[in-house]
Write a structure and sequence with these properties.
By secondary structure, the chain is α/β, with parallel strands linked by helices. It has 5 domains: 175 residues, P-loop containing nucleotide triphosphate hydrolases (Rossmann fold), CATH 3.40.50.300; 68 residues, Orthogonal Bundle (Helicase, Ruva Protein, domain 3), CATH 1.10.8; 132 residues, Zinc Finger, Delta Prime, domain 3 (Up-down Bundle), CATH 1.20.272.10; 71 residues; 38 residues, no CATH class. It is built from 28 helices and 12 strands. The chain has a 5-stranded parallel beta sheet with strand order 2-3-4-1-5, with helices on one face. A 3-stranded mixed beta sheet has the order 10-11-12, with helices on one face. A two-stranded parallel sheet has the order 6-7. Helix 8 crosses helix 9.
Length: 635
């Protein structure tokens, strides 16, 4: 007979043999005893934890020919001796169809399945479809299955196994019973490996089995696969049995002992960069991958952080409570993580873990992986040298409050609290808090840096300013788009320093006396001689904030001579003179004055002109009535 790997050889055939999924097996056994069988099941969870295995066991229990409570089958477990159970276990049952949904994922395959589901089973009680990797099925194929899944024939049962249940449509999940599988705990994997090692006559110590269980990472199948590989590479003892030890398994998996990372973190605690770089150099020269080393360091820092949170003692036997749930490692590794956790605070371990996680991510797309790994370890030493912000703020001096004064607010004798200036980062800066800048020698440490920060953020005034003291400013009347902005209040009234009359590089501050002369000079200075001559020969009309310039240029030459650069300079000069609107007219495009036509008596337009509201609008805005639409219904 051909060799069979351990994961297949020791595959569970009963609900009781499944490890770590009691919440699923108990529910299914109770449903079988009560005959509460659903037409659709979804089994989701981590890889290699028994989803497809439980689907097969459930199919055996449903099609078992022996009734529950009989001598051959006293419980809901399958009898494993009838013809249906043996065929399902061998994988050649006619009425149990196992489909790889990753391959048969299209709508055509699902249509064939739907058509075949209408027929009764050939021999057994149920026709069962097991869809492995069901999340690979397309949305169109799922939609074709919806009606059959919602109202299936009484002899049809669907079982879908998936590692990504979120990819299944909500319409599918709402029509099935969903069982979420858990990752197998370390102690459960360790017990199963110990039992298999005894059955296979393999000599293995607890440290080697614990290392295999940790490498499984919650997956029983992964742990059995690594164990199978370790047995094949293990040396044999005198009696011919393979012998597993931790060093051989680490060499097989390409990992290093966690004692190396414990030594590195001890050097980080001692602020010894040379020792950290020496340890990293030894690991890399031995042929270890920087990405694998960073991954192991991340795991070790995570275990140390959990040991710190759970308050594990380095001399304790093993973790209990939350530590036992979160630390799925051997007791020796738990004590090692507790020794490292005793060197640092919880905040420091969190920062270390964040730095190494970022380093591990960067190693995936960096060229010089060795340099980035060494840099990540050096960052741990640098983080150890940082001073907490609370301790730094507590060293700042306290600003003593000024004595209250009975004089009136605003007089020279009454002290006023200076408003803090704002730095580039947006935070207030108080000069009295810095003795070197203010010249004060008071260095009393602050009791709470957060209270000091609150005082800096919200400075208190000596007294409220009465509203009645504010003099209202008149608002000038605005007229459409030609309105000018109100002149700013004098600087002396606002308490600000006076502004200079002009400044180099700032246009529009001093209004020119002759806008035409200023525009010609500005264009001449900009080496735009043609534009300057054209404006010098033009006729200027300035009224109501608008400059109408009648040039001697034709309609074709006007945009050529007065190009965008010249027009930009012209508009800048006009804004300085308070002119906001500019109209350039060519020589042949002098608009004639429009004469309004008198409205005929009795027309709708004449009646509209007689309306008081229209007359008032004409008076205020110099409006002209052009079009009148009569919306009245005809008599």
């Amino acid at each position: 007979m051909a060799y069979q790997v351990l994961a297949r050889k020791y595959r569970p055939q009963r609900f009781a043999d499944v490890v770590g999924q009691d919440h699923v097996t108990v529910t299914l056994c109770n449903a079988l005893n009560q005959n509460r069988i659903a037409h659709g099941y979804i089994f989701s969870g981590h890889r290699g934890i028994g989803k497809t295995t439980i689907a097969r066991i459930l199919a055996m229990a449903l099609n078992c020919r022996n009734a529950i409570g009989s001598t051959t089958r006293p419980t809901a477990e399958p009898c494993e001796v009838c013809e249906s159970c043996t065929e399902i276990r061998a994988g050649n049952a006619v009425d149990v169809i196992e489909i790889d949904a990753a391959t048969n994922r299209g709508i055509d395959e699902i249509r064939e399945l739907r058509d075949a589901a209408r027929y009764a089973p050939a021999r057994d009680r149920y026709k069962i479809y097991i869809l492995d990797e069901a999340h690979q099925i397309t949305d169109a194929a799922f939609n074709a299955l919806l009606k059959t899944l919602e109202e299936p024939p009484p002899h049809i049962i669907f079982m879908m196994a998936t590692t990504q249940p979120e990819d299944l449509p909500q319409t599918i999940r709402s029509r099935c019973q969903h069982f979420s599988f858990h990752a197998v705990k370390l102690v459960d994997i360790l017990g199963q490996l110990r039992s298999i090692a005894a059955s296979e006559a393999v000599l293995a110590d607890d440290s080697a089995l614990a290392l295999l269980a940790e490498a499984g990472d919650g997956s029983m199948r992964d742990a059995l696969s690594i164990m199978d590989q370790a047995i094949a590479s293990a040396p044999t003892s005198d009696d011919g049995h393979p012998r597993l030890d931790a060093a051989q398994i680490r060499e097989l998996m390409g990992t290093v002992p966690n004692a190396v990372f414990e030594r590195i973190l001890e050097a980080v605690n001692a602020n010894n960069s040379a020792e950290v770089m020496t340890a990293a150099n030894q690991l890399l020269d031995a042929g270890n991958s920087p990405a694998q080393l960073a991954r192991q360091c991340v795991r070790y820092l995570r275990n140390a952080l959990i040991a710190k949170i759970a308050d594990l003692s380095p001399e304790g036997e093993s973790a209990e409570g939350i530590g036992n749930e979160l630390l799925q490692i051997s007791p020796d590794e738990q004590r090692r993580a507790a020794r490292t956790a005793a060197l640092f605070s919880e905040e420091e371990l969190s920062r270390f873990l964040q730095v190494m996680l970022r380093t591990f991510d960067e190693l995936g797309y960096r060229q010089e992986q060795r340099f980035h790994f060494e840099l990540g370890l050096l960052k741990l030493v640098h983080l150890r040298r940082l001073l907490p912000i609370e301790e730094a703020l507590s060293q700042l001096p306290v600003a003593k409050p000024a004595a209250p004064s009975a004089s009136k607010v605003g007089t020279p004798s009454s002290p006023r609290t200076a408003a803090p200036s704002i730095t580039k980062s947006g935070t207030p800066f108080m000069p009295e808090l810095h003795p070197r800048m203010s010249g004060k020698s008071d260095t009393t440490p602050a009791f709470s840096p957060f209270e000091q920060d609150k005082a800096c953020r919200r400075p208190e005034m000596s007294a409220p300013i009465p509203i009645s003291s504010a003099v209202p400013q008149p608002i000038p009347e605005t007229r459409g788009a030609t309105a000018l902005a109100p002149a700013p209040a004098p600087a002396a009234e606002l308490g600000a320093p006076p502004m200079p009359e002009s400044h180099p590089g700032m246009s529009g501050i001093v209004a020119p006396a002759d806008p035409q002369l200023a525009a010609v000079q500005a264009l001449t200075a900009a080496a735009l001689t043609s534009a300057a001559e054209a404006l010098d020969d033009a006729d200027w009309t300035i009224a109501d904030g608008e400059a109408r310039i009648q040039t001697t240029l034709t309609k074709t030459m006007l945009p050529v001579v007065l190009n965008p650069d010249a027009e930009k300079i012209l508009r800048s000069v006009l804004r300085g003179a308070g002119i906001l609107k500019l109209t350039l007219l060519p020589a042949a495009d002098v608009p004639a004055a429009k004469k309004p036509r008198p409205a005929r008596t009795g027309t709708v337009q004449a009646r509209a002109l007689e309306h008081p509201m229209v007359q008032q609008a004409q008076k205020l805005f110099s409006a002209e009535l052009q079009t009148v639409i009569d919306l009245r219904e005809p008599d």
